[in-house]
Amino acid sequence: MVAKCSGAMVLLLTQLAAMNYELVMGKFQLNPRSGAITLSVELKTDDGLGFRSFEAAVHQLLETADERYPDLVRAARGQGI
Asked: Can you tell me the distance from the alpha carbon of 51 to that of 62, in angstroms, rounded to the nearest whole number?
């Protein structure tokens, strides 16, 4: 996904910042060269994180990405939310 114009880029970056503020877990990032948006999360596993907890975290991450993707596409097109 690449922003259509500089105004769309500003809108997209604003949406990413707002979403990152709202998220309890995860962080959206934009690669300005490719236009790729990634959602990443850091899980501390040194305290014995079990597989069920890991699986729940991954599920939540995917659910968040799927839920927020349409808003990001609209922002990249300069359409707002």
From this structure: 16
